Amino acid sequence: MPTTRRLALARTGAVGAAVAFSGALSELFTGTAAAQATGGSAGYGPLVPDPDGLLDLPEGFRYKVLSAEGDRLRSGEGKVPSNCDGMSAFPARPRHGKGHGHGKGHTWLVRNHENRKDSRVPVPTVERLTYDPEGEGGCTVLELDGDNDVLTERVGIAGTSTNCAGGPSLWDTWLTCEETEFKAGEEGYTKDHGFIFEVGFDNRRPTSVEPLKDMGRFQHEAVAFDPHNGVVYETEDAFDAPFGLFYRFLPRKPRGGYGSLHAGGTLQAMRVPGVADLSSVTETGTTFENIEWVEVPDPVAKETPIRFQDFGKGGITHAQKLEGCYWGGSCVYFVSSYARSSEGSQRDHFGQIWRYDPRRRRLTLVILFGPDTDVQLPGEEPDNICLAPSGGLMVCEDGAGAQHVFGLTRRGTVYPMARGAQNIGTPEEPEWGEFAGVTFAPDGRTMYVNCYTPGTTFAVTGPWRH
């Protein structure tokens, strides 16, 4: 049944924060492994201020700083880059004699760096791993033992730009996405940008510095795979009207199976008949049937950005701030982080979560966030999202004021999981860096999350299955 919950948080010296949402939250977990778990409770209790001023967590939880901006990379390739963003964790085979895993699994952690030009700490250029020597973005790869001690840390790909989010592939590689549209010759770049790259993290899964051009050149955010057929869904976080599109990529299958992304394929954009802007939908549960997919005229956007291209009669459907994207059960879910009429959207909202069912060609608005006038500041702009082993959802907040990782249980309760304590402003005007890249270890024992500024990667452990 539809639910509405509100949770207000406050602490001395910080701006109040809140989350308000409406919708049938349980829909997000239908058919997933998490749905078979406990479903979560009302959370883990109040957040305890961190005496070290880094990360506030509930009692019983602990954090470890795995990597921090400006520290030396363990590979010796340079310094840990700035702007830690999207991230994913993959199982790794323990290396004999390394670490203190005591039989617990090792983990590969692949981390994006959303560096543009003039970043504080660029991703170091490395031979055979650099796409454009003028690009300052890319990925780094950490190898962790079972106790979350860092065994290795190195560059995964370099010479890209504005690597925001992405997603894991079905064959255990990471797709890193450039959230930019700069072309060669602009801003000093030597190659076109705005592509997806495939990043491997061991000798069996090499990194390719060749962009996956058929998947489109636009301001990419996140990707998610349909495990049944290998179709890839992509979100576009365009910064100006008419804003981004929701895409699907149909890979060629020269050898059957999931096919090969490097073999190319067809890029299509979603058309919701009669809906030009998803922000115009304001009632959770609203459903659209017979969703259409229209082939993109020019996927590499040689002359015109894709969102401005001619999609023929009926046009195409846009949405502001399309960000997180994941597959759950038989559907793909994607986030519109916010919409503002003052910036060109039809209506205002503080975040939407949409569900698309490909078998039924059906699109449904399942969650609508805020605003809530009963508190100082609405918890706004949900960004990265992931399923938690306790049966809930973790949401990274990307808004004003104090920044949180919020948990949402299947029963509709919102609770605080983490709060940033690093003040990057001043005592008079405090400011906290957003969270990004929330993900869980393959064994569910650890939550990994980034603070974007200053770039910091945390491993959080505790009674997750409580």
Automatic annotation (TrEMBL):
Residues 1-26 form the signal peptide. InterPro entries: PhoX, TAT_signal. PROSITE patterns: TAT (PS51318). Keywords: Signal. The keyword Mitochondrion does not apply. Pfam families: PhoX. This is DUF839 domain-containing protein.
